[in-house]
Amino acid sequence: MEGSTIAASTPQAVDAANLGEALRRTAAAHPDLTAVRTLDGSLELTWAQLRARVDALAGGLARLGVGHGDTVALMLTNRPEFHLADLAVVTLGAAPFSIYLTSSPEQIEYVVGDAQARVAIVEHAFLSRLLEARQHLPVLKHVIVIDPEEGESNYGLLTLEEVEGSNPEFDVDAALAAVTPDDVATLIYTSGTTGPPKGVELAHRNILGAVRAVQEIINLDPGSRVISWLPAAHIAERAAHHYIPVVYAATITTSPDPRAIVQTLPQVRPNWFFAVPRVWEKLKAGLEAMLAAQPEEARARVEGALAAARQRVELLQQGAEVPAELEQAVRAADDAIFSNLRTMLGLDEVVTVNVGAAPTPPDVIAFFHALGIELAELWGMSETCGAGTVNRPGAVRIGTVGPPSPGVEARLAEDGELLVRGACVMRGYRGRPEKTAETIDADGWLHTGDVAEIDADGYVRIVDRKKELIINAAGKNMSPANIEATLKSASPLIGQACVIGDGKPFNTALIVLDADFAPAWAKQQGVGGEEPSLAALAGEERVVAAVQEAVDVANARLSRVEQIKRFTLVEGDWLPGGDELTPTMKLKRRPIGDKYAGAIDGMYVGH
């Protein structure tokens, strides 16, 4: 689908000095466009209405003592009130920050204490954990609860209705005028895979610098549709579904259940969609499960069309000419098959689709390219406002995360570490000047911690996290992420994989069955009964044999030293925010090693 030209009025918001000013410019240019809405349409706010409510809430928060330089904690699902609260806080020159919804009271206590938040805005569902943490947070003076239940005022809580509009005489314009580009606009707390989370301080100039790159890469008309569905504590959600819509007047539909995103897509039909790799893997597995259940003739027809489309993708990636006969066959398949699949997925009106936040198996990206969905991998960090490198529409190189974004410089250190520099690079880590100095050098280069390669055209390929590289007993360096991606691409049965091998004589793997594909596959194969559970399937011989076949396929694509010699099927699933995965679905390698120490040791018995 051709991208449309950005309206002339939109860049005015890009040139704003801060996010509050950007909101005002967007509301002035597009007052009647829908800014944010619930999935069921029960609440819709235009940009003019959102701005009015932001001002009213800002005045109420100021009455509670929130002012320039303060912080406010948010613990909300994806709902319009998040956008309202976040913008009200930044309008005052204060910094909102979101808490992961899976956080324990101890984790809540840590981040709220580190940020020194005086006010928290929370949903009823998370209130008990926040109140438990509050017992050890003397600085937290006020808790505003959304959707309170009867009797909760006994805890000394406030409601949003009580705060919003409670200070009509407050001069919002004067407060906003004092907000400088260097003021902190938000704190993003790292997910803490290697110790306590750090508070990444992102200034207004950082965020607006990152957002400016969008107009050169993604053409978003005012009113373009996006879905707010990722955790608001993650920079990907903040950037893609909050800051960018505010600047470019996109319409945000909030989807409170991230697990239902596959069902949400057809209801919204977004023009821009960003998702983490696991979502694209699940979409691919779902389509493959549906295909597997088709009658043989229909299945053969679709498989043949996919094979032809994949061949075309491979030729295009190689820069080779696509034979006219193949091009014609793929176009016919697109009209007859792929266009219907795109409509079924809800991705028939996308201008751009992106994947990032973790390594993506190239096979997954190639699959969607074959379907006519130009999935483009990108790379960014909390420390860069989510910006960094991105594959441009029409110039995607599968297996890379693209060249640097406009306004971003990239180079490699002597040891291969990726260094980036630009307006999007954070102010620093809150309260940790020594850690900031370690991460951003005197010349402004951010040391990312990622090992990468950069080709002659400037396309970046991420090898792995510097600290996660496996060095086996023979001293060989390997990327576990690359091996894990190869495993997952070998079969939709594999949902998660964690490669073990650091200091070991050979590599092994903990493998988790895919929660969607594995039960459907088992039922088709007559394995595990009518409603097979993942725990039961992990012990089924035919399942183990099928996973072994996938491991064999993966091993054929890996060098000898990278190959998986033994594996263990984990009973059950690994869920975001659980023992094994961060809320953004990155592997918690150290906790996994501790939790599954017995199983890991068992794979090395006799060696």
Can you give a write-up of this model?
There is one protein chain. The chain has 607 residues and is of the alpha/beta class. It is 40% helix and 19% strand. The protein is globular and about 70 Å long.
What order do the helices and strands come in, and which of them pair?
Layout: H1 11-14, H2 19-29, E1 34-38, E2 44-46, H3 47-63, E3 71-75, H4 80-91, E4 95-98, H5 105-115, E5 119-123, H6 127-134, E6 142-146, E7 158-159, H7 160-163, H8 172-177, E8 184-189, E9 199-203, H9 204-212, H10 214-217, E10 225-228, H11 235-248, E11 251-254, H12 261-268, E12 272-275, H13 277-292, H14 296-318, H15 324-345, E13 352-355, H16 362-370, E14 375-380, E15 388-390, E16 408-412, E17 417-422, E18 428-429, H17 433-439, E19 446-454, E20 460-465, E21 470-471, E22 477-478, H18 480-490, E23 494-500, E24 507-513, H19 517-525, H20 534-537, H21 541-557, E25 564-570, H22 589-595, H23 597-603
Helix pairs in contact: 2-3, 2-4, 2-11, 3-4, 5-6, 9-11, 14-15, 14-16, 18-21
CATH architecture level-2 label of the largest domain: 3-Layer(aba) Sandwich
Q: Give the integer mean of the pLDDT values.
A: 90
> Please, how many domains?
3
Strand order in the sheet with the most strands: 4-3-5-6-7
Low-confidence stretches: 1-11
Give a quick rundown of the structure.
This protein is of the alpha/beta class and 607 residues long.
Task: Please tag this protein with its features.
607 residues; alpha/beta; Rossmann fold; GMP Synthetase, Chain A, domain 3; 5-stranded parallel sheet; 4-stranded mixed sheet; 40% helix; globular
